[in-house]
Amino acid sequence: MEHYYSYAEFLKAVGKGQASPSEQLLNDIYMDLFLKHVHREQTRERLLNLIDEALDKKDVEAFNLHTEQLNQLEDDETVKP
């Protein structure tokens, strides 16, 4: 099960004193994971909105394109641990 911690908690942890190289590496990894998570969620929301718009306009081509993109995004998530 994945645990998502808030950015505020991350900043509290980072702000404590001088970070050792291993702590800095962990901070960098955490930041990378956090940003990837945010990007995925924003991309998913954008695609869902585009799919809704395509349905409203009865634009089959746009619907198929954005649905395929959303499916690819979800497939990429399930492949990665």
Descriptive overview:
- It comes from Bhargavaea ginsengi.
- This is IDEAL domain-containing protein.
- InterPro entries: IDEAL_dom, Virus_scaffolding_prot_C.
- By secondary structure, the protein is mostly helical.
- The chain has one domain.
- It is built from 3 helices and no strands.
- Helix 2 runs antiparallel to helix 3.
- The longest helix is centred in the middle third of the chain and has 37 residues.
- The radius of gyration is 18 Å and the shape is elongated.
- The model has no long low-confidence stretch (mean pLDDT 85).
The gyration radius over C-alpha positions equals 18 Å
Quickly give the structural class: mainly alpha
Inertia-based shape = elongated
Q: What is the beta-strand fraction?
A: under 5%
Calculate the terminal CA-CA distance, rounded to whole Å: 11 Å
Order of helices and strands: HHH
Compute the number of structural domains: 1
Annotation, overall tally of beta strands: 0
Quote the average pLDDT. Answer: 85
- Share of helix, binned: over 70%
Low-confidence residue ranges = none
Biggest sheet architecture: none
SS field, number of helical segments? 3
Oligomeric form of this entry?
single chain
Pfam family, one: IDEAL
Protein name: IDEAL domain-containing protein
Domain IDEAL: 34-70
InterPro entries: IDEAL_dom (IPR014957), Virus_scaffolding_prot_C (IPR027393)
